[in-house]
């Protein structure tokens, strides 16, 4: 086996932008692999549930083309994880469509593997019945009814499906939902490097330049793995990796910086050493693998909860701001006179009071001379949602309150039309672990026909 | 003499850790301030619960992370990110009560 392998993560999220200079400098380091994460649950449940990407198509196309151009010129493999954001079937199809478009236009030819990650509901209900599903960060266990209520469920694959694709000779691997770290760990493990180090390096690389300071904008990161350690370094000459920047990245978006739970085990950072090995690079060693008794996969699912309609308005009148709670209660009551309060949700987001923190907000008093009001209705169908919002907006505009002087209207609307269709609303309803016997069971690896 | 955590720390941030958890990170500028803060024992579950007006049971973990001179507090989200009633899908603006919390910090 080789003594070292260099992996370039051109960016932390496919479609967020690859700085040209970082890519150029990164390629000068002769990477053996290009690997990029394309997914997240961060933007919320809509994208998974509705089956649409959360990045812009033009930006996504440009970034993927940049990566494929480098891969084609250098004949190095490309791995893409969590394709299309959510990593479900439509997300994968979207990514393959963009990929084929680029290859066709530019005449690229790669042996290509596609890996699905959408979970079959009938299969999952059998696992629920067998007691193979456990909750993760949520109180409730999964039920068959909850599986049925989901619009879409995906599972995060580990390295094994990627390894299978590479064994089949894939030069480009486009995978559905995957553990972020697996995308970069897989080629390193295939080359014989240590699993714990490979996953730990992958976990840092998957966010691209986020582990380097100064931390702004989408950027690239290089990882060089050796037998006993790995080194991370930003190709962007204006950035550095410091012990602080790399160690702090272990905190990012995780509940426990010492332990990273993965399919089949966990990466244990309690004995990891972070050393500044050059002014711009950090060497990491000592990370250990803690095998788990069972091989578990993280499930993510989203369910449609209704159709959302919004109106945005501002309030400037101090007499109304002083009466705001009673006023909003009054609007709610009057809407309920026409639409009994079941089968829909009417919400008021009050910016200037608790619009950002809601129930967690410790300061309840309004100290601003104006407040922003978002009136939100979620009802089962678009017509009901629009009708209830129209009434709430109209009542809010005209209803009186004690001491009112501005009798022509209570709200300032910035837009005409005032009522906006926000589309289907979803919620995350599955966040569980399922035990499987075979790491490949849920993830079909197929070679793409030309 | 008191200082707020935001005045002492280099970074104070919040972010989702998956759709059902909210994690708050305090990163100190150097080992000395980190050790000094740790020795204060100023952050326990009861304090964090009070700052956010939640039950102590919702404060899941408070972890000291020496390699980054950092402390991490993880809360259960009131609901999954983006559910109806959400105010902050990414959880990125929930750090202020922690940032503005004063702790005893006499001038050295």
Account of the 3D structure:
The complex is a heterodimer of chains A (450) and B (108). Chain A is an alpha+beta fold and 450 residues long. Helix content of chain A is 31%, strand content 27%. In chain A, helix 12 packs across helix 13 (382-398). The radius of gyration of chain B is 14 Å and the shape is elongated. The mean pLDDT of chain B is 96. In chain B, strand 2 and strand 3 form a beta hairpin. Chain B has four helices and six strands.
How is the secondary structure organized here?
The complex is a heterodimer of chains A (450) and B (108).
Chain A lengths: L4 E5 L10 H9 L4 E5 L7 H6 L6 H18 L3 E4 L7 H18 L5 E4 L5 H9 L3 E3 L8 H6 E6 L4 H8 L4 E4 L4 H11 L4 H11 L15 E5 L3 E5 L9 H7 L9 E4 L2 E4 L4 E6 L2 E5 L2 E4 L3 E21 L2 H5 L1 H15 L5 E8 L19 E9 L2 H17 L20 E18 L8 E3 L3
Parallel strand pairs in A: 1-2, 2-3, 3-7, 4-7
Antiparallel strand pairs in A: 1-8, 4-19, 5-18, 6-15, 8-9, 9-13, 10-11, 11-14, 12-13, 15-17, 15-18, 16-17
Chain B lengths: L1 E3 H4 L2 E6 L4 E7 L3 H10 L4 H8 L6 E7 L4 E7 L19 H4 L2 E3 L4
Antiparallel strand pairs in B: 1-6, 2-3, 3-5, 4-5
């Amino acid at each position: 086996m080789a003594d070292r392998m260099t992996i370039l993560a051109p960016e932390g999220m496919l479609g967020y932008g690859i700085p040209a200079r970082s890519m150029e400098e990164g390629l000068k380091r002769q990477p053996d692999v290009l690997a990029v994460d394309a997914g997240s649950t961060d933007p919320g449940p809509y994208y998974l549930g509705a089956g649409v990407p959360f990045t812009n198509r033009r930006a996504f196309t440009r970034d993927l083309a940049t990566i494929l151009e480098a891969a084609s010129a250098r004949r190095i493999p490309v791995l893409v994880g969590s394709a299309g954001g959510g990593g479900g079937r439509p997300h994968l199809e979207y990514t393959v469509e963009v990929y084929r478009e680029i290859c066709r236009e530019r005449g690229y030819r790669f042996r290509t593997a596609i890996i699905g990650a959408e979970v079959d509901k009938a299969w999952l209900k059998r696992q629920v019945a067998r007691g193979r599903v456990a909750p993760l960060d949520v109180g409730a266990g999964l039920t068959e009814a909850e599986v049925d209520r989901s619009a879409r469920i995906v599972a995060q694959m580990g390295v094994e499906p990627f390894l299978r694709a590479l064994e089949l000779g894939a030069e480009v691997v486009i995978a559905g939902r995957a553990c972020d770290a697996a995308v970069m760990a897989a080629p390193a493990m295939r080359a014989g490097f240590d699993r714990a180090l490979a996953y730990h390096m992958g976990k840092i690389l998957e966010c691209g330049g986020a582990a380097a300071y100064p931390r702004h904008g989408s950027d690239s990161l290089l990882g060089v793995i050796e037998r006993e350690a790995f080194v991370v370094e930003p190709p962007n000459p204006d950035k550095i990796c410091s012990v602080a920047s790399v160690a702090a990245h272990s905190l990012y978006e995780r509940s426990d910086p010492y332990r990273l739970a993965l399919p089949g085990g966990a990466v244990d950072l309690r004995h990891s050493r972070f050393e500044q090995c050059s002014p711009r690079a950090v060497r990491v060693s000592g990370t250990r693998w803690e095998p788990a008794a069972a091989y578990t996969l993280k499930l993510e699912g989203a369910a449609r909860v209704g159709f959302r309609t919004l109106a945005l308005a501002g309030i400037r009148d101090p007499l109304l701001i002083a009466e705001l709670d009673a006023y909003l209660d009054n609007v709610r009551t009057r809407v309920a006179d026409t639409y009994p309060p079941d089968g829909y949700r009417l919400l008021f987001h009050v910016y200037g009071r608790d619009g950002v923190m809601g129930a967690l907000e410790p300061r309840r008093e309004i100290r601003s001379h104006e407040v922003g009001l978002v009136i939100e209705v979620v009802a089962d169908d678009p017509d009901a949602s629009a009708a209830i919002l129209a009434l709430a907006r109209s009542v809010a505009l005209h209803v009186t309150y004690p001491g009112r002087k501005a009798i022509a209207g209570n709200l300032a609307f910035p837009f005409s039309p005032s009522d906006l269709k926000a589309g289907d609303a979803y919620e995350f309803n599955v966040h569980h672990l399922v035990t499987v016997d075979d790491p490949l069971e849920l993830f079909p690896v197929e070679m793409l026909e030309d | 003499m008191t200082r707020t955590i935001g005045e002492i720390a280099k970074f104070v941030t919040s972010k989702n850790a998956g759709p059902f958890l909210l994690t708050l990170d305090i990163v100190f500028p150097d080992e000395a301030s980190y050790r000094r803060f740790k020795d204060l024992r100023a952050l326990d579950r009861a304090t964090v619960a009070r700052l956010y007006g939640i039950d102590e049971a919702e404060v899941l973990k408070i972890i000291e992370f020496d390699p980054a001179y950092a402390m991490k507090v993880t809360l259960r989200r009131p609901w999954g990110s983006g559910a109806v009633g959400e105010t902050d899908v990414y959880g990125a603006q929930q750090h202020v009560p922690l940032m503005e919390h004063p702790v005893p910090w006499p001038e050295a």
